[in-house]
C-alpha cells in the first residue's frame, strides 16, 4: 500500500505543452507514472509527451478517466488552473508552480473547503510512491521502496533526508512534499493522518522549518492520533529572528511560536525525537524499524 | 515575500482611495524641507523615508515649530544612517492635533488561510507589543476572501474594539477602504498606525504601511514602478542579491553558504553552527540554476569580506550537477589564486556528470553534507588561527 | 408542537429603530413574541419598543441570548443585515424586506449553504405559531391554534386562505410565508419537511403561484417523503404567458414548466388536491382532519 | 423585475467595456438616417429601437444599400407601431459580413439560485427555440456569485459549445466581460445575439440586450438615467402605472381588478375567470397603501375604456382597511354619477374601521372574496346585455 498515488493513478498534466510541463511529464512517464493526458487551453487535439492534449481538464477526465492532475502552469494562471482541477471531480491535484499570488491561494483555500478533491502544494516538488509512480519533479532515482512515510515542507531538504535513508537501505512508502508557501492544500496533519492509516507505513519522517505554527499543530495531532513512530527535523535553528529566508513561511515572529525551539520542543513533548542533522533523523528511523 | 512601499508612497495610495491623510511634501534637502514647511505651515513633522520600524526612537522623526528647528531636523535626518539604511528623503507633514490614536490593519492570517481585519484603540505604539501583552485590545475579524469584507464586519471590528461612537462610522469606512486596497492591490499588509482622531471627531492617517505580495507585482504595474524607488537603501550585498534574484540574507559569521532550496540552505546554516562555525550568509540559488547563476552566487559570497571559507551544497532535483560544476569552474578559473577555500558537495540529478566536469584543483570535494560542512568550518578556523 | 417559532423563541429585531421595525416589534410583542433586543449600527445603548438596542447582532446574541432575528432593514442594506444574522449563530433569520437586489440574494444563497442558520424570506410576511409567537408582519388576529401547517409564497393570499380556515374553526400549527422572490431561503420542500416531522401538524396547505419550478419540486418531494395530507392552491391560472404579475417569480416561461397547469398537474399526480378557489382548499382540509 | 435598456444603450455599455460593436448612430428622422448612413458607409442596417423581441420579422429592421433604400426604410420604420410600441428612434448601423453567428448570455438561474453563463454556436435566431428544440446546443456554466466567473469557466463554456478554436479566446473574453458587466451593473440578463464571427476571425456584437434588476437601480445611477429614455413607448395605461409605481398589466377583458399582494390579485383574476368573467387588468397596490394611492388605483382602472365593473379586494396586513376606505371615498366622491359599478371587499387589519368609513352609497360591499368577484362579474354582464 501507499498513500495518494500508485501505479493505478491516471494523471492529466496541466500545462503539458510548456517546457517544464513537457519535460516532467516525460520524466514522470519514464518513472512509470500513468500519464494519460495533457490539458492546455487552445491546444486541444494536439499531442505532447506522447499523450493527447485537451482544452479543458474536464475533457481529459471524460475522455481519459484522469483522476489526478499535476499542474505546471505559470504563476499568473496557476490559481485558475487549480480552480479548474478542483471543479473536475479529480481525487488529487498537485500544484508544482512556485510564486502564485497569496490572495489567489486564499481563494483556492476557500474552495478547497467545498470540494472533495485534495490539493498538494503549491510550490512543492510533488509526491512519489517509489517503484510505482511519481507526481511532480522529484528525482526518482534517490527513492527506494520501503516502509517509511515522509512529509516535508521543503523540496531539496526532502531529497537530502531521503538520500540518507536510501543509503542505509531504508525505503519509503510514499514521500510527500507539501510545499513551503503560506497557504497550502495538504498540510502536515493531513499527511500524518494518511500515513497513520496506511498499513504499510511503519515509521514517519516529518521535515519542518521555522515560521508558522504547522509543526506545533502537527505535534499536537501526533500526540493524540498517531501511533506510528515519527522522527522530526526542523530547518532554521540558526536563522536570526525577523529575517526572511526564502519561503514566505520562514519568518520568525520573534515571540513564542514559529521558532525552531518552539517546534522542536512541541515535537519532543509529543514523543517525537528531532534530529540535529539529517543523519540523526535516519538514526531514529533505523531504531524505529529495526 | 513582500515589497514594502515607503510611507509617502503608501499614503499616496491611501489618499487616492479616499482615506484622509495630513498634507505633506517629499523633500531631499534642507531647502526643500524649509519650502515644504512654509507651504504646509508650522508645526510640521520631518520624517525619514526608510522602511524600518521604530524610526521615531532612532531619531528619524522630528516635530518642528519654526524654520530654525526645521533646518536642524533636516540636517540631522537627511543623509543619516538609520538602522543600516541611508536616509535620502524625508516627508514634511502637517502636524495633527489628536485626542486618540487608533490602529487599523489588514493582513493574511496564514494559520487560517484567510485575510484578517484588525482594529485597536491602542494605536500609536508598537502594535506587536500590544498584541503580545494585551491581545484582547485588538479586535480581529476574519474575512472570507471569496466574498470580501462585508460592511457588517467592518462595523463589528470597530465596535468590538471599543472605538468611540462619534467616529465609529468613519473608522469602519477607512477599514473598508483599506480592505479594498489590500485586496485590489495584492497587499500582504495594509496598516494605518496611528489613525488619529482629532478634537472635532475627524480621523486621519498619520502613518501608512502598504506591503505588496511580490508574487503579484506582475499584475500591479503602478506599484511595481514604485518598487524602483522603494528598493533604494539597504545592505549593498543584499541589493546585489536583489539584482541577481537570489534569496540572500547577510549574517554575522565567516562561513559562506550557497545551496539550492530554502530548507536545505537553512539546514546547511544549522550544520555550520552544529560543527562550531558561524554562518556568514544565507544564499539560495533557487531551482534549476544554470552555470552563470552559480558563478554569480560564488561571486557574491566572495565579495563579502567577512567570509573565510565557502560551502557549496547542491542536491539536484531540477538543478543539474553538471551545470553547477560548470558554474563553479567558470567562477574560479578567472582567479590566479582562489581567494577563499571552497568545499563542494554535489548530489542528486547528474551529480556524477558534475563530478567529472568539476575542476578539483580549485575546490575541495566532499560526498556528504555533514563532511562538507565540517571541512568548511575547519577551513574558516584555519584562516583565523 | 409547532415549527421554527414558539413562545421560547428569543427575537432580536434588526432595524428596530426604523418606523416599520419599531411598529412591528411592538405588534410582535403584543401578540406574545419574546422580543429581547434590537440591533442597529450606531444605536447601541438606546432603547426601542421597550427593549435594549445593540450595535451588532452578535452583541444581542451575547447579551440577550437571542436565537432568532427578524429583519426590517431597507433593501440597500438588507443583504448585509442577512449576512450579519447568518454570522451570529442564530437558529433562524426572517427577512421581511422587499426589493433586495437579486445579486445580493445570490450571494446570501451561497452563504446559506455554509451555515446552520435557517433563513425565511426575504420579501415575505414572516411566520406565526398561533397563540404563541409571530415573527414578521402577519395580522395575528386572523390566525387560530390548531393542526394545519401552512406554507405560501404570497402574503395576502396566505391571509385569505387562513381566514377561510379560521372561519370554519380550523386552526393552524404554524404558518410560514416563504416569500415570492426569485431567490429565497426556506422553500416549499424545506417547509413541507418541517411540517411532516411535526407531530401536531395533521394536514398541510401549500399555496403556490405561477413561475419557477418550486411547486413541481415540492410535488415530487410530497410524492416521496410526505405522509401528512396536503391540499394545494395555485394563483395565476389566468395569467397570460410572458406577462409579469408582481413577483419576479411569477413569470410564465411559455413552455412546459412554470405554468399553473404544470404545477396543478404535478401536485395532482402527487396525490395533492388543488382547489379552484380558496374555499375549496378549506373544503379539502376539512375532509383531511374530519 | 427588470429595466430593459434599448439596443443602442446596451451596445454603448458593452462597447465602453471593450466588447467590439459595429459603428452606429442613433437617428430620429429621415435626414438623420441619411446623414448617419453616409458617415458609416453603405450597406447599413436601420433598426427600430423598441424593447420587443422579433423586430426583424415585424418589419422593424431593414438592410439598405443606398440613400434611396435608406430613405424608404427610415420612412417606414420611424413612427411605426411595432407590436404596440411606437418607434421614435432607429439605430443606423454598419452592416457586418459574417461567417458565423454565436450566442453568449448571462442570466440568473432562479432554480439554482446562481448566475449561469451560456454559449451557443446557434446564434442569430430565437435562442428560446434552440433551448427548447436542441437544449444541448447551448453550453451552460453555473457561476459561484461569491467568486465570480473563473477564467477557466469562460473557456469551458466556449469549448463545450463547440466554438471554433480560431475565435475561442476572443469569445471567452467577450463572455468574461459580459459577466463582469452583468455583475457590476446588477444585470438580470446580459446577452449578445448574434455575436457575429467575420471572415477574418473577428467577433462583433451585432445585437445587445442588457436588462437591469430594478431593485438595484438605486446603486446604478448611470443606468437609472438611461431608464428615463428607455421607458418611452408601451401601453399608455402601463406607462401611467409605472408613474404611480403600481404593478399593473393590461389584459383583454372587462372586469377591472384592484387588490393588494401579487398572489391575492392573481387569485382574484382567477376567480373572475372561474365565475365566467374576463379580467381587464392586474393591479397590485402593494403593501401599506395609503388613501391617495388607493384613489390613484381606482382612477387608473376607470380610465380603461374596456372596464365595465371593478372589484376591490383588500386583505389587510400592513395595509389598513380605514386607509383603503378613505381612498375609495375620495376617488368616488368627485363623480356626480359613479362611472362603473365598484364592488368592495375588505378583510384583515382595521376592516371594521374601514367598513364604518366606507360610503356604501357609492359602492357595493361583499363579505367574502368569492361573493365580491361573483357580484362584479354579474355587474359586467349586465352592462353588456
Automatic annotation (TrEMBL), chains A, C:
The keyword Nucleotide-binding appears for this protein: yes
A Gene Ontology cellular-component term: succinate-CoA ligase complex (ADP-forming)
Domain CoA-binding stretches: 4-100
A biological-process GO annotation: tricarboxylic acid cycle
Tree of life domain: Archaea
Matching SMART domains: CoA_binding (SM00881)
Keyword Nucleotide-binding: yes
Top EC category: ligase
UniProt: substrate binding residues: 159
Catalyzed reactions per annotation: acetate + ATP + CoA = acetyl-CoA + ADP + phosphate; succinate + ATP + CoA = succinyl-CoA + ADP + phosphate; GTP + succinate + CoA = succinyl-CoA + GDP + phosphate
Binding site for CoA: 17-20, 43, 96-98
Active-site feature positions: 247 (tele-phosphohistidine intermediate)
SUPFAM superfamilies membership: NAD(P)-binding Rossmann-fold domains, Succinyl-CoA synthetase domains
Pfam families the record matches: CoA_binding (PF02629), Ligase_CoA (PF00549)
Pathway the protein acts in: Carbohydrate metabolism; tricarboxylic acid cycle; succinate from succinyl-CoA (ligase route): step 1/1
GO MF assignments: acetate-CoA ligase (ADP-forming) activity; nucleotide binding; succinate-CoA ligase (ADP-forming) activity; succinate-CoA ligase (GDP-forming) activity
Key words, A-Z: Ligase, Nucleotide-binding, Tricarboxylic acid cycle
Enzyme Commission number(s): 6.2.1.5
Role summary: Succinyl-CoA synthetase functions in the citric acid cycle (TCA), coupling the hydrolysis of succinyl-CoA to the synthesis of either ATP or GTP and thus represents the only step of substrate-level phosphorylation in the TCA. The alpha subunit of the enzyme binds the substrates coenzyme A and phosphate, while succinate binding and nucleotide specificity is provided by the beta subunit.
Quaternary structure and interacting proteins, as annotated: Heterotetramer of two alpha and two beta subunits.
Family to which this protein belongs: Belongs to the succinate/malate CoA ligase alpha subunit family.
Name used for this protein in its record: Succinate--CoA ligase [ADP-forming] subunit alpha
Organism: Natrialba chahannaoensis JCM 10990
Gene from which this protein is expressed: sucD
Amino acid at each position: 500500500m501507499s498513500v495518494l498515488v500508485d501505479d493505478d493513478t491516471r494523471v492529466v498534466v496541466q500545462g503539458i505543452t510548456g517546457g517544464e510541463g513537457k519535460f516532467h511529464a516525460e520524466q514522470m512517464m519514464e518513472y512509470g507514472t500513468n500519464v494519460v493526458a495533457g490539458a492546455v487551453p487552445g491546444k486541444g487535439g494536439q499531442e505532447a509527451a506522447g499523450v493527447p492534449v485537451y482544452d479543458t481538464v474536464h475533457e481529459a477526465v471524460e475522455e481519459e478517466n484522469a483522476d489526478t492532475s499535476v499542474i505546471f502552469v505559470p504563476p499568473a494562471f496557476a490559481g485558475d488552473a487549480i480552480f479548474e482541477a478542483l471543479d473536475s471531480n479529480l481525487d488529487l491535484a498537485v500544484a508544482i508552480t512556485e510564486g502564485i499570488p497569496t490572495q489567489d491561494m486564499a481563494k483556492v483555500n476557500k474552495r478547497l473547503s467545498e470540494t472533495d478533491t485534495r490539493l498538494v502544494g503549491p510550490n512543492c516538488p510533488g509526491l512519489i510512491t517509489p517503484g510505482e509512480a511519481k507526481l511532480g519533479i522529484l528525482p526518482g532515482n534517490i527513492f527506494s521502496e520501503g516502509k517509511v512515510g515522509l512529509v516535508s515542507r521543503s523540496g531539496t531538504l526532502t531529497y537530502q533526508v531521503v538520500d540518507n535513508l536510501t543509503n542505509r537501505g531504508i525505503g519509503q512508502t510514499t514521500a510527500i512534499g507539501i510545499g513551503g508557501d503560506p497557504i497550502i492544500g495538504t498540510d502536515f496533519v493531513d499527511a500524518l493522518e494518511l500515513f497513520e492509516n496506511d498499513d504499510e507505513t511503519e515509521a514517519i519522517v516529518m521535515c519542518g522549518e521555522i515560521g508558522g505554527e504547522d509543526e506545533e499543530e502537527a505535534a499536537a495531532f501526533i500526540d493524540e492520533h498517531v501511533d506510528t513512530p515519527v522522527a522530526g527535523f526542523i530547518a532554521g535553528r540558526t536563522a536570526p529572528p525577523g529575517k526572511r529566508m526564502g519561503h514566505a513561511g520562514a519568518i520568525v515572529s520573534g515571540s513564542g511560536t514559529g521558532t525552531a525551539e518552539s517546534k522542536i520542543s512541541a515535537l519532543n513533548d509529543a514523543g517525537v525525537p528531532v534530529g540535529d542533522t539529517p543523519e540523526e533523523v535516519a538514526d531514529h528511523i533505523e531504531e524505529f524499524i529495526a | 515575500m513582500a515589497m514594502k512601499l515607503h510611507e509617502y508612497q503608501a499614503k499616496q495610495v491611501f489618499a487616492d482611495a479616499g482615506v484622509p491623510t495630513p498634507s505633506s511634501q517629499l523633500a531631499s534637502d534642507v531647502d526643500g524641507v524649509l519650502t515644504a514647511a512654509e507651504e504646509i505651515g508650522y508645526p510640521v513633522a520631518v520624517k525619514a523615508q526608510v522602511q524600518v520600524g521604530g524610526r521615531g526612537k532612532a531619531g528619524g522623526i522630528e516635530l518642528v515649530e519654526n524654520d530654525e528647528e526645521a533646518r536642524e531636523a533636516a540636517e540631522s535626518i537627511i543623509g543619516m544612517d538609520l538602522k543600516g539604511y541611508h536616509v535620502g528623503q524625508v516627508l514634511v507633514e502637517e502636524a495633527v492635533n489628536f485626542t486618540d490614536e487608533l490602529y487599523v490593519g489588514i493582513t493574511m492570517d496564514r494559520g487560517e488561510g484567510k485575510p484578517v481585519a484588525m482594529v485597536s484603540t491602542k494605536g500609536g505604539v508598537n502594535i506587536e507589543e500590544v498584541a503580545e501583552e494585551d491581545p484582547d485590545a485588538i479586535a480581529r475579524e476574519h474575512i472570507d476572501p471569496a466574498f470580501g469584507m462585508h460592511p457588517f464586519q467592518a462595523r463589528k471590528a470597530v465596535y468590538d474594539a471599543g472605538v468611540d461612537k462619534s467616529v465609529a462610522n468613519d473608522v469602519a469606512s477607512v477599514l473598508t477602504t483599506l480592505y479594498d486596497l489590500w485586496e485590489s492591490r495584492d497587499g500582504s499588509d495594509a496598516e494605518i498606525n496611528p489613525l488619529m482622531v482629532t478634537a472635532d471627531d475627524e480621523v486621519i492617517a498619520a502613518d501608512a504601511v502598504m506591503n505588496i505580495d511580490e508574487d503579484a507585482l506582475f499584475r500591479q504595474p503602478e506599484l511595481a514602478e514604485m518598487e524602483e524607488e522603494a528598493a533604494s537603501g539597504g545592505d549593498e550585498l543584499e541589493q546585489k542579491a536583489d539584482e541577481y534574484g537570489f534569496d540572500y540574507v547577510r549574517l554575522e559569521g565567516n562561513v559562506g553558504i550557497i545551496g539550492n532550496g530554502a530548507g536545505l540552505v537553512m539546514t546547511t546554516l544549522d550544520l555550520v553552527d552544529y560543527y562550531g562555525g558561524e554562518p556568514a550568509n544565507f544564499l539560495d540559488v533557487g531551482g534549476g540554476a544554470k552555470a552563470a547563476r552559480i558563478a554569480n552566487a560564488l561571486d557574491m559570497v566572495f565579495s563579502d569580506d567577512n567570509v573565510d571559507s565557502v560551502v557549496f551544497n547542491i542536491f539536484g532535483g531540477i538543478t543539474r550537477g553538471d551545470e553547477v560544476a560548470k558554474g563553479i569552474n567558470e567562477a574560479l578559473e578567472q582567479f590566479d589564486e582562489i581567494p577563499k577555500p571552497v568545499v563542494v558537495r554535489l548530489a542528486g540529478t547528474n551529480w556524477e556528470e558534475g563530478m567529472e566536469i568539476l575542476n578539483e584543483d580549485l575546490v575541495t570535494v566532499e560526498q556528504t553534507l555533514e563532511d562538507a560542512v565540517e571541512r568548511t568550518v575547519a577551513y574558516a578556523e584555519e584562516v583565523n588561527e
